[in-house]
Amino acid sequence: MNDMNNEGRAFGWDDEFTNEQQEFVLLPEGDYPFEVTGMERARYEGGAKLPPCSMAKLTIKVFGGAKGDATVTHRLYLHTKTQGLLGAFFESIGQAQRGEKVIHPRWNEVVGSKGLCRLGIREYTKQSGPHAGETGQSNEVTRFLPPPEPTAAPAHGWTQGAF
Description:
Layout: E1 30-44, E2 53-63, E3 69-77, H1 83-92, E4 114-125, E5 135-145
Antiparallel strand pairs: 1-2, 1-4, 2-3, 4-5
């Protein structure tokens, strides 16, 4: 099998595959670069804090350097109550500027976009399987961060006579 990229591919019913298992990486809390590797349009059925609305299920690859890379699923809810969170995401990936009054998301450009996020660790209780009832941990995006401010070029890029 030759995967064209690190995101893999879907198997056909007659394909062969190896018995390799991907290693789970839990990154420490902190700020990391990320890339959106997948997006699914879905519907949120509503809950105590938010009524039914459309949502984008994002698959995000978080680059942890020597610590490894983590894959995180993040949901963006398309509702007036979450406008600030939507704006932060689109600012992070460069589709919006801070203070911009109206954002026109280009959903078809979300996959492949890159940005910065703050990663946290979420604890949960496993619901099924041989470890049901045990506590587990996973990474979660707690904030999308704006791109870093461009650094100003030095006033003089060179000094005459200096080597």
